[in-house]
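User: Fold this, then the next.

Assistant: Folding the first:
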Amino acid sequence: MNFELTEEQKAIQHTIRDFAQQEIAPRLMEWDENKQFPVELVPKMGELGILGIIFPEEYGGAGMGYIEYALIVEEISAVDPSMGLTVAAHNSLGTNHIYSFGSEEQRRKFLPPLTTGKTLAAWALTEPGGGSDAYSLKTTARRKGDHWILNGSKTFITNANYADYCVVMARTNPGEGKAGISAFVVEKGTPGYTIGAPMNKLGMRASDTAELFFEDCPVPAANMLGKEGEGYFNALSILDGGRISIAAMCVGIARGAFEHAIRYAQERAVFGKKIYQYQAIKIKLADMATQIDAARLLVMRAAAMKDAGRDVNMESAMAKL
């Protein structure tokens, strides 16, 4: 078992760390205070391969794995979790659902602009009446000729206002239970598809989050992802990869806080000594470092298993905890 990163992985880590410090850190307080999504960062992240890190080069991606992806999300989140969340929702959820369950024609159509940073992806499962309880969703899709007509709403959708493509789960056959849910790519500008104002949040306010509304919204039948009735089960599979990225984001947040704590301990003096010189503070910092490293190891284990094609349902959930 090798715990060392490869030279390429270390280079990626350093590149993203520099990017976060140079492009995000100087303005992150401004963006957060103004609840402003920094759309100008999207093409820059696309150029670095951040928005297509886990997808094959033939679709415009970087052709790398979940270990590299987790490293990227951690580095960005250590500076600004708003951007870490943006990257995670785009890669793990919206874009990955298209890649994992879309047809070859759908991949060729939707993936290149997503993996290269020309636009973002959103993923819409959560509804006002149910978040983690995905099975309770009320949004419906009714077949009408060569279209499906969507009606309903979604809430707390990351990247909502800036995504040209949103993967939406809807109930296509109410009488079939879990097998009655399907997934669709809804394109921005489709009649009957409206996006609410950015939601007011306690934190990560530079991440775009909004409600979605569907009122007799016609979606081409060709935009259904996978087979009819597979949406619920496919969504659960997608969430496994999503948990890895959210866990990496949390490690980044913790590491960023730890680095601030270290700097403060080195600057603050009481009774003639810097506070890091006191045993009580050393113990606190040691505990923090140990817990962060343990959390990172859980993330890396789940990422390595994902790259090996193994089931990570339990491991990704443990990492996220």
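Now the next one, as you asked:
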Amino acid sequence: MQKRLQIAVQKSGRLLEGSLKLLKECGIRVDNGKDQLKASAGNFPLDILYLRNSDIPQYVEDGVADIGIIGENTAFEKQKQIKAILPLGFSKCRLSIAVPKNTAYPGPEFLNGKRIATSYPNSLRHYLDTHQLEAEIHEISGSVEIAPNIGLADAICDLVSSGSTLFKNGLEEKEVVLKSEACIVAHPALSEEKQAILDKLV
């Protein structure tokens, strides 16, 4: 019986739409719908696992999924033993630092000693360390952009695509921490058979 490659994709959102479009463009026909947790390709040895985006790096590291499609920002943030093998060119965004409008902002040194709210503490910490800055990181899981308005933080570090959410919340983007797009990540020790399937896919 032929081995099948297990690919993990986001179960909802922009990454899912881009992932399914990519598979379709590769000529891969998915037999059952995305409302299920698992689907199979009818014309290629590929099974699709629909998972929460933040869980995909762990599943790939553990070998439950052989490969996954995630944002580069997620791959960087989660710091798992996985390898990014191919940027895909969709779901482009950036992880940026923003402050309230009309804030006197001389440059990154503004962040020294400040409180910064983020859902990406590892990425933010790396940026601060690189710039030899010290700040108080407040890790929150959602609605990061309201943190300055409620007195929780002096700045935020969050994903930005169009900037409209920042504008609505009276914030201005000041620094880009990292640029991101969708990419394929893989378990670092795929079997020869599964690597051969992956090579056909990419």
